[in-house]
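Contributing new records

If you add data, match the layout below exactly. Sequence lines come first and carry their own label; structure lines follow with theirs. Keep one chain per record. Anything else will be rejected by the validation script.
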Amino acid sequence: MVDDWLQAVLDALECGVYAVNSRGDVVLFNAGAERLLGWKRREIFFASGNRCFCCPPDPSGPTRSSDEICLHRLSSPSGYLENFRQLRTRDKTWLNARVHVGWASGRDGESLRVVSFWKPSNENSEELIRQTREAALEANKQKDKFVSLVAHDLRAPLSSMVGLMEFLLDDPDGRMQPSQRDLVNDMMATGRSLIDLIEGVLNIGRLKTGKIIPDKTFFELNFLVESVIQRIIHLAREKEITIDNRVQSGVRMYADMSLFAAVVQNLLTNAIKFSQPGGKVTVRQAESGGPAVEVCDQGVGIPADTLPRLFNVSEKTTTPGTAGETGTGFGLPFSFDIMEAHGGWLTVASTLGHGSTFCARLPHVRPRVMLVDDEAMDRFMVLSVLNQMDLEVMEMNSGREALARIEHEMPHLILSDVNMPEMDGMELLRLIKKDDALRKVPVILITGDEKAETRDLAFRLGADDFVVKPLILHDFLPRIRHHLGG
């Protein structure tokens, strides 16, 4: 990954040092990092996917405060950033460390994020780390709250001003001169741009303060991408740009569908904005597979010194498009925050003059289906159908057993028989739909009872679907895919 002489120099250091490229790949890892974090260099270099040492690997693992910005996504235009942080070790514990983050250029000119770290010798370092972190988080929350309040107070009078200008343009007597009408139109355009800018600030503030909480569901990526393309296709047509959707059908994603659509739309509008007329924009799955989408353009590209600051809301990195298009500059930071709120990543690779590729990647989530039926043979019949999909199935013998399991492990879909002893499927459905924490979990009732009153009762209690035995494959599978995507 690096020259032998440089590796030897870095290995002689007491502190840990590693470097990450713009794709999130670790390209340098010294002996100090091996000693402090427990990983061997070969494990890091040849691991699949991005390796992040300051974020938990999965929701069930150790956690850190979600308000702390990931070191691999931190951006700074000037020199080093220094802080007390926790880094994740190979044995899934947290290392309290003093961290420096800097930026350097690799041999090919690629921007590298360089992280150096060591254990403080101060015996009170853990308390100092805690106090420093709490103070930083509180200051950041107060800043976000102040910005949101100011933005909110500005939006109302600006909206009123734009409304009054619209009233002026509605001139039934025709007394307004053409030059005056043009001036009012320009003022309205400026006012609307300011309102869009304020809305961007408010959205980022809401996301950071937890007022926007992702409502995650499964959906098919191809369908979402195609719907977003239809929203913005007029922008591409104006510049005679072709949008090529190469996402295959059946690719499952788990996210807030509207928020993830906003990310894809931001990436597509940016790609159109910075593409030359007659160009091409491609939407595809990431080459490494998994729940990720890439938006690639052949446009002007992004300067290397801008890449580390691209997702930082406090940095002004927006520039006019190839046709003079303007923007608020909040689209990419907002998209970055959306992906971070999902536990995902937004990364970019770009070559000046040749285009850019943005990748929005989500954590892999395998759907959990709870199958509730007291008859083992009936469960076997349903399992024979479910095994055709990439699912984790939890088999339950009764409604009571299902409720007890749900307290510890929330399923993404519940398939329940109706006629069961102790607690039948209707009672299980009623208890699930009256619980605020459970009511959004879709429930499909499966029964041999074809009576209309049974079906009506199920839907009155909140059933999301109703299936009659014996199961018909071409009818049952689409119902499952409707709720789990893919």
